[in-house]
Design goal:
The chain is an alpha+beta fold. The protein is built from three helices and four strands, in the order ααβαβββ.
Length: about 120
């Protein structure tokens, strides 16, 4: 009887944890999806002011391009290095999704990329 009880409690705890993880991941997925829809409105040549109007203030402003990782995103890093971007606006969504927009000296978007780990 005690072995059955332990197994039952284990299954209940595992199922409960799965539900909690699912509950907390759904809003994040909606948040990333919603931001991604706005991100697709940004085109090369869009002004920084218009970009900020659409996406809101970035979480960071940096001089170096970055995504969640480099492996698998080498083409994005190559495009960023070849661009005339002087500053990168970064938005961090979810645990591992980074949206990056490069702005040049004239204040316009010259590159935009997103990636995750």
């Amino acid at each position: 009887m005690s072995r059955y009880l332990i197994v039952s409690i284990g299954i209940f705890v595992a199922f409960s944890l799965a539900l909690v993880l699912l509950y907390y991941s759904i809003p994040m997925n909606v948040k990333v999806r919603s931001f991604n829809e706005a991100f697709t409105q940004i085109e090369l040549g869009t002004t920084e002011k218009e970009t900020l109007r659409i996406l809101g203030e970035p979480d960071a402003r940096e001089t170096l391009f970055r995504l969640g990782r480099t492996d698998g995103f080498e083409p994005a890093y190559t495009r960023a290095a070849a661009s005339s971007a002087k500053q990168y606006l970064l938005w961090f969504r979810s645990v591992d999704v980074i949206f990056s927009i490069g702005i040049d000296d004239q204040g316009v978007v010259v590159i935009k990329e997103s990636g995750s780990t």
